[in-house]
Write a structure and sequence with these properties.
alpha/beta, 2 domains, eight-stranded mixed sheet, Rossmann fold, N-(1-d-carboxylethyl)-l-norvaline Dehydrogenase, domain 2, 277 residues, single chain
């Protein structure tokens, strides 16, 4: 089984490196930027293809590792070149395999790793721990069995749930970046030195993450909402402005629901009214 990649970015390159480390045969890469294909192929002792057709022909499993908004256009070029025996994949978290519209009998899937690929040289041990979701129809059990040999956590997801699933991934990953950036900005706006502010939120963030990993979100919750500290929350809302206040208000409402479930003996109605104003 030879695996080829259209797109030599962070996701495609890291997946190829990981598959290669697990003794999967890598056919190689095709990219609009040939030099990218060359660099990625060197990491897996595979081929850098000069044409799309060559990459498709050389691959039993073909991965389209391109940005979501490019998938349909790339598939329009690829679809005439595929055969009935080939297995076609993309790695989008939000798109389903239905984007591969074809009258051929090829097996089509989405395989999404729950991992933030920051560069093309992610440690293989991190990828080895990443959960994957798989979605598709024809030959799904066969593909699931092959991928099980990677020993990653693997779950099959229904196509109609892909968008909501991906939104959950964004909450756990990308939006956390927004929260960290907001925390740093507010600390700097307090007049604190930049180095101090950066170290401060990082240490605080790391400690909280360790709590979250060791227990459930409801068990890890601390702070003024959990204590039903009305004056503190009110003061926060009074000092925060614009986007900061909107982020604070939206997430505090979520924390309020958690706190109320943890402490049914406490009356959180006043805080709820304050947040809804």
């Amino acid at each position: 089984m030879r695996i080829g990649f259209i797109g030599a970015g962070k996701v495609g390159t890291n997946l190829a490196r990981y598959f290669y480390s697990k003794n999967f045969a890598i056919a190689g890469f095709y990219s609009n930027h040939f030099e990218h294909a060359v660099k990625s192929s060197q990491k897996t002792k595979s081929q850098a293809f000069t044409s799309l057709a060559e990459c498709v022909k050389a691959s039993d499993w073909l991965f389209l590792t391109v940005p979501d908004d490019c998938l349909a256009a790339v598939w329009f070029e690829v679809e005439p070149l595929i055969s009935n025996e080939q297995f076609i994949f993309h790695c989008s978290g939000a798109k389903s395999a239905s984007i591969f519209t074809t009258k051929k009998a090829s097996s089509c899937f989405s395989l999404h790793p729950l991992l933030a690929f920051a560069n093309k040289e992610m440690p293989l041990e991190l990828i080895a721990e990443a959960p994957f979701t798989l979605e598709g129809s024809k030959n799904l059990k066969y593909v699931e069995k092959i991928l099980a040999s990677l020993n990653n956590p693997l779950a099959v997801i229904a196509s109609e749930e892909k968008v909501r699933y991906h939104a959950a991934c964004v909450f756990a990953s990308n939006l956390v970046v927004g929260l960290a950036a907001t925390a740093e900005e507010v600390l700097l706006n307090c007049g604190l030195p930049e180095e101090f502010a950066q170290n401060a939120w990082r240490q605080f963030f790391l400690q909280n993450t360790q709590n979250l990993l060791a227990m459930s979100p409801s068990e890890a919750l601390t702070g003024p909402v959990e204590r039903n500290d009305l004056s503190t929350v009110s003061d926060h809302l009074a000092t925060l402005t614009g986007e900061e206040a909107a982020i604070y208000r939206a997430l505090t409402k979520k924390l309020l629901h958690i706190a109320a479930a943890n402490h049914p003996e406490r009356d959180y109605q006043v805080m709820e009214r304050m947040l809804n104003q």
